[in-house]
Amino acid sequence: MTVGDEDTLFDVDTPLGFQVRTTQSHWELITTLKHPALRGRLADVQMTLQAPDEIRLSRSDSQVYLFYRSDGAKRWVCAVTKRLNGEGFLITAYRTGNIKEGDHLWP
What we know:
The protein is an alpha+beta fold. It has one domain (3-97). Helices cover 19% and strands 42% of the residues. The chain has two helices and seven strands. The chain has a seven-stranded mixed sheet with strand order 1-2-6-5-4-3-7. The chain is globular and about 35 Å long.
């Protein structure tokens, strides 16, 4: 299934000059099976993409970006995105206590 097969839940601009989108069904997969701690935190993930504290490039995939935004003492919301042919989409999102290694892109 591609993003165009269903309604887009959000499509937000990032500081890196590309948009990231996700669908309702993909968000439900993230918040029910992968990372239930993010249930009810859609706005936090959108803010992480729009106004992150830090962005890193994945060490294992040059098309994967990790957006981090502070979420309390020594905690972060991480939104993992992929950019293919200029199109950005959300892979997953989660809370973490550590920022992964990778090329520091922003700020």
